[in-house]
Amino acid sequence: MGDQSIDVKHYWRAMLRLIAWLLVCWFVVSFGLGILLVEPLNQFHIGGFPLGFWFAQQGSIYVFMLLIFIYAWRADRLASRYGVD
Amino acid sequence: MGIVGWTYVFVIASFSLYIGIAIRTRADTTQSFYVAGRGVPAIVNGMATGADWMSAASFISMAGLISFMGYTGTIYLMGWTGGYVLLALFLAPYLRKYGKFTVPEFVGERYYSQAARVVAVVCAIFISFTYVAGQMRGVGVVFSRFLEVPVEQGVLIGMLLVFVYATLGGMRGITYTQAAQYVVLIIAYLIPAAAISWKITGNPIPQFGFGDRVLEGQNAGMYLLEALDQIHRDLALPEYTAAYVPGKKSMVDVFAITLALMTGTAGLPHVLVRFYTVKSAKAARWSAMWALIFIGILYTTAPAVAAFARVNMIQTLNGTPYAEAPEWFKNWEKTGLIEFDDRNGDGIMVYSGRPEINELQVDPDIMVLANPEIARLPAWVVGLVAAGALAAALSTAAGLLLVISTSISHDLFKSIFIRNLSERAELRLARISAGVAVVIAGIFGIYPPGFVAQVVAFAFGLAASSFFPILVLGIFSQRVNKEGAISGMLTGILFTAGYIIYFRYINPTGGPDQWLFGISPEGIGSIGMLLNLVVTLTVSRFTPAPPAHVQRLIAEIRLPRMRPTGKLI
Predict the structure, then answer these.
(1) What is the pLDDT averaged over residues B24-31?
(2) Of A19, A38, A72, the CB nearest to B286
(3) Which chain B residues touch A54 with a CB distance below 8 Å?
(4) Percentage helix, strand, coil, to 5, in chain B?
(5) What is the per-residue pLDDT for B455?
(6) Cα angle B247-B358-B454, degrees, rounded to a multiple of 5
(7) What is the distance, to the nearest Å, from the Cα of residue B256 to the centroid of all Cα atoms in its chain?
(8) CA-based max dimension of chain A
């Protein structure tokens, strides 16, 4: 990696950790709650929505937005903490 | 003033706005033509990405499709939004840091190979043409239905407009017109949705309204979705909210299609290139967030529109005598998108899940466009929806045409045929290619080849199985090399294309029992994507690591900081 300092290595490792966590959330909410577990979740309701159906057609999209927000915010903080911004 | 009058008002007003913006944002350098000078604010780029991404398919077709699919419509809702998470986490900031102008350019440099670049260019052009043909068709349909001009003239007007701002303004012009088009299309989508939600449930926010109780009529007091399930049961149709019941797609297939659409979205060249236009890697991340918020506003409204339209459609038509059919029914009957066949000769329209007694054929495409008329909203709302549909189709068409023109002038001519092309000549060539591409797209719009609708699934499958894995690996692995990427891309493309062609043309009657793991051709891109990933990693392990300068490039694009010189390494 040539001229890369310790900070750069730490920055990248922290970044990969952040990405991994967000990816797990992404998978759980969309493929997990919206597809794999939709039938058991549909036994429960919020208002007029069967829960699994709600995650599939509404909830997952809200969570996606939240995930990118957390990502952009945390990535900015990582960049300034490790001095690579 | 009637529907036609209002449509003219909105269409002329919005078109004048787009032309005005195009004239003010003329491009005079290749930097400005290809990437809008890289000074687009994150939020403006988010809006432009929203309009770029949301096409005639999202605006006109999607809610209609969901309306007929119920739960299964999820494949589009999650598939076309979840990809932005992947785009933000894996691609947008790094491609921006890399800089330059195109996606094939990144592929060529990261994999130190002209061959890889050419494969990428061919995929980019194919994907974009497939897509753009559908947009011009959408323009033609809106013109013919609402302005009562022939489809050909409608396409011609659309072509002229795109021609003006795409060739004049390039990416700069397109960016700001797309931002304006986003505003037009989202207003046009939300107003009728809110009005219908308020009318049926008393709640003006559609996202909440379709989980609310019906105010009046035979289902008064019931939850809307409960009523919809009830109506479906009565008509021998699978329940609307039920997931994997007979008559709907299997869990495996829903999983595969959603994954293919997500990874395909993240690999679409016209979306990726939008992230080259912002100031920095940091801005690219925030821009991805804005893009998903702007897209999410429409995508969370669509399933509500779908449910309301479904109830309205069935309740207005089923059991109604044909002689008393509403006016919108007669209007759409002329287009052939809705048909009544009085099988039992009693003059009463019957809609049913049992094919032997069903007498109505309804094309999902009319649901959004006819929705305001079905719900008896005022004429100006219908005109607004027409202007919104045009904004959605034209903004996507412009973004795609730019990818085609850049691919031709920058990736083919400048890098392969005439290496010493001057900037002025390259800019002229980019304008000419954009012009030629508009004309070809227009011809596809007027004489749509039968395969347009079929190849859209192909475009996503191809983007998923060719671009996505090698772009992500190119950034996140230093070990992946030229040999790996080329064999991976070819495996992914050949497998996906072969599977789709086999089940479309050679064995079109082959159903779920013959599909590989029960995955339909629509979803096979996800398997192609995984194959590409495995082949790229395996071949790279047994072949030499990339040269030192490529390793330095990878290390550099991972860091958000910009060098003062603007050079990468």
Answers:
(1) 74
(2) A72
(3) 211
(4) 75, 0, 25
(5) 61
(6) 55
(7) 18
(8) 59
Q: Rounded to a whole number, what is the distance in Å from the CA of A65 to chain B's nearest CA?
A: 6
DSSP for B196-252 reads: HHHHHHS-S-HHHHTTSB--SSTTTTSBHHHHHHHHHHHTT---SS-SS-TTS--HH
Q: What is the pLDDT of residues B134-152, one digit of tens each?
A: 777 777 777 777 777 777 8
Asked if residues B145 and B396 have their Cβ atoms less than 8 Å apart, the reply is: no
| CA B328-B329-B335 angle, 5° bins | 95
3-state secondary structure of B339: strand
Find where tokens 């930097």 sit.
Answer: B31
- What tokens appear for B535 in the block? 């082949």
Task: Please give the share of chain B, as a percent, with pLDDT higher than 70.
Answer: 96
Strand partners, B361: B339
Mean pLDDT score of chain A: 89
Instruction: Name residue, tokens 């952009």.
Output: A72
- Numbers of helices and strands, H then E, in chain B: 24, 2
Q: What whole-number distance in Å separates Cα of residue B139 and Cα of residue B134?
A: 9
Interacting residues of B17 by C-beta distance below 8 A, sequence separation 6+: B180, B184
Q: Please, which residues 36-55 of chain B have a Cβ atom closer than 8 Å to chain A?
A: none
Read off the tokens for B250. Answer: 């299997």
Measured distance CA(B371)–CA(B559) in Å, rounded: 49
Q: In whole angstroms, how far apart are CA B523 and each of A16, B67, B340, B463, B497?
A: 29, 20, 33, 12, 12
pLDDT in tens, A4-54: 577 888 889 999 999 999 999 999 999 999 999 988 998 998 888 999 999
Phi, psi of B346 (to 5 degrees): -95, 0
DSSP state, B545?
P
What gap in Å lies between CA B332 and CA B175, rounded to an integer? Answer: 35
At the second CATH level, the architecture of B3-447+455-557 is Up-down Bundle (1.20)
B220 in reach of chain A (CB within 8 A): no
